[in-house]
Write the structure tokens for this entry.
Amino acid sequence: MEQLVTIELFGQPYTFKAESEIEAKEVAESLVKEVARIESQQSGKASDITKLAILISAALNIINENFELKRNYSDLLQKLSERSASLIRRLSANMQ
């Protein structure tokens, strides 16, 4: 069942949907941490980064991490499939 969760970033509330309350809290926490990380990186710099730029940077970082995890997962599945096929061939050969 989808849950609505509201978080606050830069004094503004944002509401989103998630499959579970636990998942929603984890997603919100992850975004808040990433925004805080980017803000802390930018705080000592002379350039004035906008809130929108911080949010976009946070979103891009999270999406990049997601793509990396998907690629790693896909690679893992491919390796497992290859190893399983190899083991099946060996077992078949030994049973004959």
